[in-house]
Amino acid sequence: MRLLLALAIVFLVGSIATVVYLRHAVTGVSGRIATLLLGRPVSYDTSVPVVVEKIQSLQRLETVSYSMDTIVEGKRTSDILPDLLFGDRLLLVVHGQAIAGIDLSKLKPEDVKVTNGAIHVELPPSEIFTTAIDNKKTRVYLRTTGLFVPADQNLETETRSKAEEQLKNAAMQDGILDNAKRNARATVTTMLNGLGFARVDVK
């Protein structure tokens, strides 16, 4: 008898807790379950200021990482004297990475339009956030110095800077900005679908 009473109490408490949970669930999987079980629609705040704030919360959305391995040349030469005597040349084996994405903190309220359950978003332009050489994987492959000149201590530093610029240019030529924009559109579209919009258009 006591066992049956205890089971009844546990069942009653569990049922009450479940109902309370479902009545307060408004988003995500919980919200969808609540809609099915309780027969009520899930409500969202889809006003422009709220939507802009949610998108901006993603901040610097890094969507593409581009890696490169190459050899970059740096040299000092004379227009008159031969390199064998006065030249300074090095070959640098470079490993670097460029990261691109969209800075969503730059999104403005006028970039978002909400009408009749549909939303249109004009994203800020994609950009390269960082271009960096991996010092641990970058090394001097070859260094030759003329007989009458010392090795220039600044040549390697300048060559590394040149390598960063080449990395950025190579990433641009391979379409890193287009890929960053496309991936950002997919991410923002998924987020807006989760907010309950019937139609989502992200440009």
Would you give an account of this structure?
The chain is α+β, with helices and mostly antiparallel strands. It folds into two domains: 43 residues; 158 residues, no CATH class. The protein is built from six helices and seven strands. Strands 1, 2, 5 and 6 form a four-stranded antiparallel beta sheet that branches. It has a three-stranded mixed beta sheet with strand order 3-4-7, with helices on one face. Strand 3 and strand 4 form a beta hairpin. The longest helix has 23 residues. The radius of gyration is 30 Å and the shape is rod-shaped.
List the helices and strands and how they pair.
Blueprint: H1 2-24, H2 28-38, H3 48-56, E1 60-76, H4 83-86, E2 88-103, E3 112-115, E4 118-121, E5 127-133, E6 139-145, H5 155-173, H6 176-194, E7 199-202
Parallel strand pairs: 4-7
Antiparallel strand pairs: 1-2, 2-5, 2-6, 3-4
| Shape annotation | rod-shaped
Alpha-carbon Rg, integer: 30 Å
Strand proportion: 25-35%
Distance between the termini: 66 Å
Structural class label: alpha+beta
| Number of spatially distinct domains | 2
Estimate the helix proportion, in percent.
Answer: 40-55%
Number of strands: 7
What is the chain-wise order of helices and strands?
HHHEHEEEEEHHE
Spans of 5+ residues with little confidence (pLDDT < 50)?
2-31, 33-45
What is the overall pLDDT average?
Answer: 77
Structure annotation, total helices: 6
Largest sheet composition: 4 strands, antiparallel
Using brief descriptors, characterize the structure shown.
alpha+beta; four-stranded antiparallel β-sheet; three-stranded mixed β-sheet; 6 helices; 42% helix; disordered N terminus
